[in-house]
Every structure is written in C-alpha cells, then in structure tokens.
Amino acid sequence: MLGPPGAGKGTQASRLAQSRGVPHISTGEILREAVQAGTDLGRKAKMVIEAGQLVSDEIMIDIVNDRLGKDDARHGFLLDGFPRTVSQADALDNILGGREPLVVIDLSVNDDELVRRLSTRRMCELCGAITGSANGSPTVTCGTCGGALKQRNDDREDVVRQRLIVYRQSTEPLIGYYQQRPTFRSVDGSQDEEAVAALVGAAVDGVTS
Q1: Active site residues
Q2: What does the alpha-carbon distance between residue 79 and residue 157 come to, in Å, rounded to a whole number?
Q3: pLDDT tens digit string along 102-133?
Q4: Three-state secondary-structure class, residue 88
Q5: If one looks up domain 9-109+157-208 in CATH, what number appears?
Q6: In the predicted model, what is the mean pLDDT of residues 59-73?
Q7: Domain ranges in the chain?
C-alpha cells in the first residue's frame, strides 16, 4: 500500500488485511513501539521522525526482512509504510524471491487535503488510538477509552509540509518504479473511507483474479 502521509494507508491496509485474512504489517507501528519502549532503534528513530524525515533504508530493510520471515506472513501479508524508496523496493524484490507477484496499490490524494487531515489528527495518550476529524475541528477525548488526545509532533502543519516535501523527493519515484508492472493500481484516496475501501478491494481483485 503506497501513498503520501495522510492518504489513509493505515486505515485501508487494516481493512484489506482483515478481509483477506493476512497480517497487516505497519512499519510505522513497529517504529512507534520502539520509540515508546526506548530501544536503541527507538531513540535513533525518534529524532528523525519528529523532524519529518525518513528512517534510513538499512534500518527499515532489516525490520521488514525479519518480519516477513515470521510464520504468519508465509501465505501472504499487507505492507503499510514500506517500501518508501527505490532502494527499499529493490530490497523487497530480493526478500520476496520466489513468492507470488507483489500487488501494489497507490492511494492518490492532493496536498491540501493531506495537510487538513494530518493537522487535525490526534493520538490518545492512554491507548495510542489515532483520531481524525471530518470537519476540520479536532476532538479532545478518545472515543475508544476516553483518554485525552494530543497532537503528535510529526502532525504539526509545518512538519506535515516537510514530510510531504520528503515524500515527493524520496517516495514518489516509487510510482515510476512500479507503475509499469501489471500488478500496479492507482486509487483515488480523497473519497470517504467506505468508497476508498471498495475501490481498493476491486483493484486487488482485478489484479489477482
């Protein structure tokens, strides 16, 4: 699942993975867990993430290689947040080896909508749930556990715009890397969640049927 920050990759990846019975592998979640745990990886990643930059290819490739080697990913998986660079894409092809062809879905959303989504997004201090806003007014209480919501440092508008610059420079070339493959599909991610989910499901079915 490809797309810029705020395109809805996590939401759509989770839905699709559940419907297809495969693990949803979010490299962002793996990194955030490392940051919260204060591991060596977490400390290194924290400064990079909060500055709106990308964690190094070497670290991300090692994380994914280890995760895809686990038993639950043997018969399929859904990657969310990887690859983000052409170097990572090359490494992923090598990791996959003789597995089934990689299906690539790109969620396309314009920058103004991405900034609106991310700058109004909040994270629960208790359970870590992410809450967005449909009308541009961020909520203050978690709908899952009732905990207080706060804005992540990497969701401030100035950092969001920097993240989008980094995305255009480092990650958008992946579209060119994958778009000539018969298993690549682009989906309009600016629509509501249900509509995008339907488009994503249809795109996957169109590739794999």
Answers
A1: 9, 84, 121, 152, 163
A2: 26
A3: 999 999 999 999 998 888 888 888 888 887 76
A4: helix
A5: 3.40.50.300
A6: 86
A7: 9-109+157-208
